[in-house]
Each structure stands twice: as C-alpha cells, then as structure tokens.
Amino acid sequence: MQKPDIKVSVIIPSLNLGKFVKQTLDSVVIQDYKNMEIIVVDGASTDITLKVLGSYPSVKVSSEPDRGIVEALQRGVGKSTGDLIMFMMISDGYLDSSWISKCVDFFRAHPMTSLCFGLPQYMHENGELGAVSYGRLLRNPPVSSDSIFERWLTTGWHFPECNMCVRKAVIERLFQTIDPLDDSIDVFLEFTSRFHTSGYMAQFLPIVANFGRLHGGQRGEIERRSGILSKRLAAYHGMRRRLMFDLLIHKRSVVFRGEDGNVVKPYAPSTPRLCALASR
Question: Residues of 93-128 as b/e, b for ≥16 C-beta within 10 angstroms?
C-alpha cells in the first residue's frame, strides 16, 4: 500500500440506534487505511447513542435536530475535508477491513473514474449474516464504465450507498444539490440517476465490502409499507426507460466525463446489446 496521501471522509447519519453503534464504528475504525476522518451526524438521539459515540475520541460527532437523512448526510459532507466521500448507516458496517484501502488504490490507478463500489451482504438484527446482494456480479462482473452504465440503463440497479466511494467534487455537484425535503425521490436512487445521466464513470470491485442490517423500524421498510417507495421507484424506472429509448432513437446522447467534467468519450448505444441486458 502506498503512502496515504488521499484523505477519505466516512459520513454516518445517526438517530436512536445506539445498540448498533459499536459494531458499526468498530468496522470503520479498524480499516487499515488511516488517512481518514469519521464524521457522525446525529439527529439529537435520546437513547444510548451519544454515550457510545463518546467512547470514540477520534470520531467527529455533532448532534442536533435535522429534517431527515438527506439533510444529515449533506451536513456531513459540508463538514468533511476528504478527497473521497463514503457514506455508512449507523446500523451497518464494513466486512472487509481493507475496503477503504482498495478504493483508494483503485482511484490512484484510475484518475478519470469518479466512483467505485463493491457488494453488500444482508445481516439480520441478531448479527447473523444472510445473502450477498447481487451475488451474480461476482460470477459475471461488469468490466467497464460502459457496462456499468448499461446495466443501470436496462435494470435501474443503483449504487450500494454503504460501500460506494465517490470523488468529493462529484458529490458536491450531484448530492449536495438534492432537495432534502423532496419527498417524491429516494436520495440514493436520485444520486445514481444524476451520476449516470451526467456521464460520470464508475467501476465495480468484485468484493463483498459491507453488511446492511435488517432491523425493526427501518426507514426502507416504513417507506415500503406506506406506499411512498413504490411511487419513487415508478418515477425512477420511468425516467431511465425513457432515456434508454431516446438513446436508441438518437433523440438524446450521453458522453462520459472525468471528475473535472471534461469529456472523455461519447457513449455509443447498441440495440442488440441493450436488449440482451434488459432480458436477463
């Protein structure tokens, strides 16, 4: 591993999930890449969360009421000083203790790529590991930015929020401009959509990088039961299907670009290839 000259900011929103805090923070603190900062943005927890956080002197903690997870994450980005941004939920954690090192090494070798990601694995509330999400990607990994883009275009698959590593300049352009009060969107679906339609390039690292814990009172489950998630998904998939159709009839175009926004190459859609991907 080279000299750790690239700084990484790991941003963790938190609210009244104190029983999970230790396992989450331990998984971040033990990462073998040390030029990083851990920022916990707490929404004024009233359980044991702040007490547990207080036992981690290296972690930067702020605690004040917020208007939800988007505002909390955006506050964290605003406080960050890293070159790369990573998000982690307070009930989740890393499975690979060198995951951040691998992301940094990837970016050193691929200066034009703006995001890298691995795979998450489910964890039950009792700590038992479950299935690996999208495990088929380990058997047949997408090997280029073009294939990552086309997989999104044909399936709507979104970046795993708790292991993706993103250049800060891209986060500032795409994530920080999301309206935290817009209830019609899911923040990570919206970020994925903005990333791809802006032409930034991503790459997959074939590693099971983190666990995502299933637990009572989970935001996603609440949104599913209320029906709001299905509405968000319908809008999201409708948008990317329209884009795919417009690309195929040459009504719209996409160009791939680097972190600085400069064009690297145009995207050339192939009808047979997209149809084959969409039918899988």
Answer: bbbbebbbbbbbbebeeeeebbbbbbbbbebeeeee
Q: Which residues pair with 265 in a beta bridge?
A: 256
Helix (H) or strand (E) holding 182: none
Strand spans (E) along the chain: 8-14, 36-42, 60-63, 84-87, 93-94, 115-123, 129-132, 165-167, 202-213, 255-257, 263-266
Q: Which amino acid is at 40?
A: V
Residues 135 and 119: beta-carbon distance below 8 Å: yes
- Are β-strands 263-266 and 255-257 bridged in parallel, bridged antiparallel, or unpaired? antiparallel
- CA pseudo-torsion sign 23, 25, 30, 33: positive
pLDDT, tens only, 205-256? 999 999 999 887 777 677 777 888 999 999 999 999 999 999 988 899 999 9
Residue 264, classified by CB atoms within 10 Å of its CB into exposed (0-12), middle (13-18) or buried (19+), is middle
Q: Within 13 A of 189's CA, how many CA atoms are on the CB side?
A: 20
